[in-house]
Amino acid sequence: MARTDPPTDDATTSTELAPDALSLLTRDHRLVEELFTELERSTPQQLDPLARRICKLLRVHTQIEEELFYPAAGRALPNESFIERAEHEHAEARETIARVESLAAAHPDFNGAIALLAQQISEHVQEEEGQLFPQLRKGSLNLIALGLALAERRDTLLDVLGLHDDDEEGIANQHNTHPSPPAQQDERRS
Ligand SMILES: [Fe+2]
Ligand SMILES: [Fe+2]
User: Fold this and answer.
1) Ligand 1 centroid distance, CA of 40 (Å)
2) What spacing in Å lies between the alpha carbon of 90 and ligand 2's midpoint?
3) Which ligand has an atom closest to residue 66 CA?
4) Alpha carbons 106 and 149: distance in angstroms, whole number
5) What does the alpha-carbon distance between residue 30 and residue 104 come to, in Å, rounded to a whole number?
6) The pTM is what?
7) Ligand found nearest the CA of 31
8) Per-residue pLDDT tens for 158-178?
9) Alpha-carbon distance values, 11 to 15, 165, 166 (Å)
10) 4, 190 in Cβ contact below 8 A?
11) 25 CA distance to ligand 1 middle (Å)
């Protein structure tokens, strides 16, 4: 990978960190953004495995949101129409994920499919973080308990897909538990 940051000594599993639900999902969002950026810098040989990894992570993320997070959010915000729209956007993104998974990186449609997926995810993430998460932060939902359930389900699904989580946690922890000073952030990529 092109990452230049040193590994963190205190990277732990998501369950040990006991993130609240919104922190866990936000960390996933930053991780996927990081991997999309990494894709732009990848060599042709790195494209296929990295794209597969992004797709798997997105499948896990959308699944835990639909199984656990959206139902809890829907109960906490009964008048909120966001959930229905979010699930529709997930369905659209899953079509693009399947398209990316069906294409080798050398295929002429690969870059377009990746660009569409990145755009769909970016717009969806902006809505979640800009609209849904702030409402839930103000509400009475037990975000710690929900975070633990999400972390446990996420770990299980990552195991099923054969995705080792260490790298993902390492990247995410650098963004969320150890914010870098601006000068260091500027040096993150060469
Ligand atoms: Fe999300
Ligand atoms: Fe989502």
Assistant:
1) 22
2) 6
3) 2
4) 39
5) 25
6) 0.79
7) 1
8) 998 888 654 454 444 444 433
9) 12, 11, 8
10) yes
11) 6
Distance CA 90, CA 120 (A): 9
C-alpha Rg value of the chain to the nearest Å = 17
- Cβ–Cβ < 8 Å for 139, 80: no
Ligand nearest to the CA of 87: 2
Residue list, CB under 5 A from ion ligand 1: 25, 128
- How many Å apart are CA 146 and CA 76, to the nearest integer? 12
Report how far ligand 1's centroid is from the alpha carbon of 23 (Å). 11
Among 16-20, 26-30, 38-42, the least confident range: 16-20
User: 112: CA distance to ligand 2 center in Å?
Assistant: 22
Higher pLDDT: 57 or 140? It is: 57
Q: In 10 A of CB 73, how many CB atoms?
A: 23
DSSP 36: H
Instruction: State the angle between helix axes of 21-41 and 143-160 in degrees (0 to 180), rounded to the nearest 10.
Output: 40
Closest of 153, 180, 189 to residue 28, by C-alpha: 153
Q: How far is the CA of 128 from the centre of ligand 2 (A)?
A: 7
Could you tell me the two tokens for 131?
Answer: 């609209």
- Assess whether pLDDT exceeds 90 at residue 186: no
> Which tokens belong to 136?
């839930």
Cα(40) to centroid(ligand 2), Å: 23
